[in-house]
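Researcher: Next entry in the queue.
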Amino acid sequence: MKRKLFVFICLPVVIFLTGCGSKAEEDDIRGKSLPDYISLTAMIVFVEDNFIGTDLMRGYSVSNDNFDPEDYLVEAYRIQLTNETKFIDAETGEAFYFDFSDQASLFEDENLGYIYDRDGREVEVKTEEPFTPAPSADRTDYILSSHEFLPIYTAKEVTLYPLTYESFTFRHAVKDTSNVLMIVETEDYFSEPFYEEYDRLWKELDSLSENRSYIDMYVMDTAGLEQYSLPENIDQFPYYFVFDDGDVALHTDNWEEVTTFFSHD
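Model: Structure for this entry, 265 residues:
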């Protein structure tokens, strides 16, 4: 178990992919953000495809058994971010910029989470260049596995919408794997008692891993949790989310329920 602390071309289809995206303005790109695994200075914006439409969570249902790249069309874009890119919090209207040339200050910026924790966040992008919707074909793999050869635009302005329960699930749930997300209060994060408790719980999970090929465990503090609009009010900590095969299988403040889940599966 890995130990950690702390995704044929026919005219009707083309019309569908270029006409159904919910864009506030004709020249905006609006969709769900995906991280660019190469650099912080780029992001992927997924609009829709002909396998799952706009429902990014359903992307976990796509596998080698039901995916044929020859029939695949996706509208998605690689968005380059610069020091001049204006970021806007859609809830507060606050505008801010990042200095991508100074990594030391970048990683100390309190707003970094807006672009670092961006899996599944809804965004709207105004581009420096004239924007033309363009579905991509002739791809080698599904969009969640491969971001190569997408149309590239430079972001003039990026509006960031609140993180939702869907984006929370998308970020932590992975098809064909199981993991536990432990929520701890911010003031307890990385304290010595926290490390001791984490180590104890991790060893318990490790002893249950023979029932599964893979169980992972992550940690998030309450400040990180507050970014998401979760349907339930959580006020007892530590709190645990169990993700199994791409979905939330259990959430509880009772660790015994977590171990029971893995013991009986």
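Model: The chain has seven helices and 13 strands.
Researcher: Noted, moving on.
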